[in-house]
Amino acid sequence: MSNLDYDHLDLEIDENVAVLSINRPKALNAINVEVLSELGAAVETLRGRQDVRAMILTGAGDRSFVAGADIAQMSDYGQDEAKTFATQGHQVLTAIEALPFPVIAAVNGFALGGGCELALACDLILASEKAKFGQPEVKLGLIPGMGGCIRLPRKIGHAAACEWIFSAQVYDAQQAKDVGLVREVLPVDKLLDRAKELAGVMAKQGPLAVAAAKKVLYSTAALDSAQAGVIEVDAFAALFNTADTKEGTRAFVEKRHAHFQGK
Ligand code: CO8
Known about the structure:
Order of helices and strands: EEEHEEHHEEHEEHHEHEHHHH
CATH architecture of the largest domain: Alpha-Beta Complex
Radius of gyration: 19 Å
Low-confidence stretches: none
Mean pLDDT: 97
Shape: globular
Bound molecules: octanoyl-coenzyme A
Number of helices: 11
Helix content: 40-55%
Strand order of the largest sheet: 1-2-3-4-6-8-11
């Protein structure tokens, strides 16, 4: 199924996996206010779709995932406009992180600035051998404003994040894998297939269980073990009120495949 209602996004849904592509090739898929608004709307649409159980976020064309926020648009901003833009950016990326299914970033080409931050808001990143990552904002006299100062150190560690953000350097896919940002580096022509394969595996699991696990993973990140443990226990127990948990466990006992209904 295709959805062509967006000017700067392509959306396809096939076998419970959504592929959402940012498509603004003349600016290397840079995010302006319009792209951000469409992204927010698409995320809300996908959140409400019972048939979507995993998502891939990628960039259209062969050069770029997202080359950052739109620098030309920002060059005229004052403080109030910058605050509005960054607030909207935070809202959209937080909404991506809060989607009740896994989100895989498939990164080919540039994932710089806001592009790197967008990938950081996904659950995991697969990169092509041509991917380039970085937070070059200080080179422009800016800072990462869509969660980079927050999510990057959580994913690659404090020291590595300080190096990335303060130096504005660009890193290749293998370097990004070495610091734990990227899960797999793939040939360009295998990237999307591998992302679809992995998303497909995730989409076949119990959807309520995957959603619950995701919620526990993110909601406990800043808590101590005791507080986090309470949240995990409650989430574990709550699943026993669902038909899917009964189906999954009984299917094992009865030596058959489980048929999950998301109920
Ligand atoms: N914004 C606007 N236009 C861009 C951007 C961008 N981030 N990146 C590329 N473009 C445009 C170029 O201007 C050019 O347009 P035109 O053909 O009309 O001149 C076109 O894309 C192709 O780009 P280049 O000719 O520059 O291609 P090169 O292969 O020579 O270089 C690079 C590719 C290295 C990616 C180069 O374009 C570049 O350095 N881009 C900027 C990268 C960058 O600094 N990104 C960070 C931006 S700041 C940011 O993201 C802040 C996020 C936090 C705020 C968000 C709040 C919501």
